[in-house]
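Extended Data, panel c. Modelled sequence:
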Amino acid sequence: MSWTEERVELLKQFWGNGMTAAQIADRLGDVSRNAVIGKAHRLGLSQPKKTAPRAPAAAQAPTARKSPVAPTAPAPAAEPIMTPKPMPKQPDVRAEDLPWHRRCQWPIGHPGDPEFRFCGEAAAEGKPYCTRHCVMAYRQKEEAA
C-alpha cells in the first residue's frame, strides 16, 4: 500500500470529519489503523476532539457553595514502617554440601566486576534465596495490601 495524493486527501477529509483511525482504515482499505495514525501524525493533523458539547452557561444549574470547614485536629503521625517478619529458620545444612540449584542465588556486587558472586548459603525451601535474602526479596502478607 502506498500513500497516493488521493488517499492522503481522503485521510485529511475523514480525519477532519472526526472519524476514528479504524473507520478511516476500513474506508481506505489495504491499510491498518496504525498506518492511518502514523500518517496523520506525520501530516501534523490534530487529534480529533472527543468531548461532548457543553450546555450554555445560562442553562447550567447553579452549584451549591460549600461552607468553610472549621480546622480540625492535626493528623496523626504517620504509621511506622513495618519491618518484615523473619522467615522460619531452616535446619542447619552446610552450603558446600548442596548442589548449586539449592544455594541462595542472591547477587552480591555488580555483574561484570571480578568480585561479583552469589550468596551461596542454603536456600529456603521452595525459594531461590536463603532466609535472610527472602526477607528482603518478598513482601509479607500484611504489607501486600
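The mean pLDDT is 78. This feature is highlighted in the accompanying rendering.
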